[in-house]
Amino acid sequence: MKYKYYFFDFDYTLANSEKGIVVCFQKTVEKLNIPQKGEEEIKKTIGMPMMDAITHLTGIKNPAEQQLFLKTYKKFADELMTPNTVFFPDTIAALEKIKADGCTTAIISTKTRHRISEKFQLDGYSHLIDLIIGSEDTTAYKPNPEGINMALNLTHADKQQVIYVGDSIYDAGAAQNAGIDFAGVLTGTTTAQELAAFPSVQIIHCLSELL
Hints:
Elements: E1 5-8, E2 15-16, H1 18-31, H2 39-43, H3 50-58, H4 63-80, E3 86-87, H5 91-100, E4 104-108, H6 113-123, E5 131-133, H7 146-155, E6 162-166, H8 169-178, E7 181-185, H9 192-195, E8 202-204
Parallel strand pairs: 1-4, 1-6, 4-5, 6-7, 7-8
Antiparallel strand pairs: 2-3
C-alpha cells in the first residue's frame, strides 16, 4: 500500500450520526424556545465546528448563550448520540484491512474524542483505531490543520506516507493546509463538485474504493 498512515474524519466518513445530531439539535432548540430548523438544514452543518453550527442554525453569536446551548445539547447527546450512530457498511472491513497491512489509523474530528471512543468501545472495535483527536484536544478547527499536525507529531509520520479521508470541504481544506494527501468520500452532504475544488488523490463513493 502506498500509505502507511490513514487519518480519517468521523461523522459522514466512518459513521452516520445524522439521526443523533438532528434529534439532539431539535430537542435543544425546543428546550431553549428557539425556532426549529428542518432536518436537511441541520444535516448540512455536520462536520462544522460546533459553535459555527450553533450560529448557523440559531443565529446565536453571544458566547454565553452559545455555551448554554452547548451544555443543553450535550445533555441530550449523552443519552441519544451513540445509540443513534451507525458505522457505514464497509467501515469496519476497511479499517480491518488497513490494520492487517500494518498501517496506523487515526481520527481527527470536530466531534468530541470521548464520543467517538464511546462508539468504538460499544461496538467492540477500539483495536482498529490507534489515535483519536477530537474537539476537546484542539483550539482551532478544520480547515485549520492543528488536529492533523497533532496527529502527525504523535505518530511521527512522514507526510508523504499519510492520507486524510473526509467528506467535507473542511476536511479537504485541513489536509491541504497540512500538506498531506486527501481522499474525499461522498457519504455526507458535500457533492463531488464541491470537493473537486480542492486537491485530492481520489473522490470515492465509499471507503472500500479507497483500498
